[in-house]
Write a structure and sequence with these properties.
This protein has helices at about 10-30, 45-55, 60-65. About 55% of the residues lie in helices and about 0% in strands.
């Protein structure tokens, strides 16, 4: 009665969704001066929230290199 098989494109949709999350965050981390590979961590629950707060409240390496004042 209960079908335990996955929707035929379920795996493809998960990969597509992960790419939609990873790509923009990778670019944001790269522009901020961090490794773009940190974007991969954004698909992990709880870790993504910690990284988001870290990104928002830390002084970015890009800012340090260009000596721009913080707001």
């Amino acid at each position: 009665m209960h079908d335990t098989t996955m929707w035929p494109f379920g795996s493809l949709m998960m990969v597509l969704f992960a790419a939609l999350v990873i790509l923009p965050f990778s670019l944001i981390f790269k522009k901020a001066g961090y490794s773009q590979w940190l974007g991969l961590l954004m698909i992990l629950p709880i870790v993504n929230l910690v990284l988001l707060y870290f990104l928002a409240f830390s002084t970015w390496p890009y800012d340090k290199a260009h000596h721009s004042p913080r707001d």
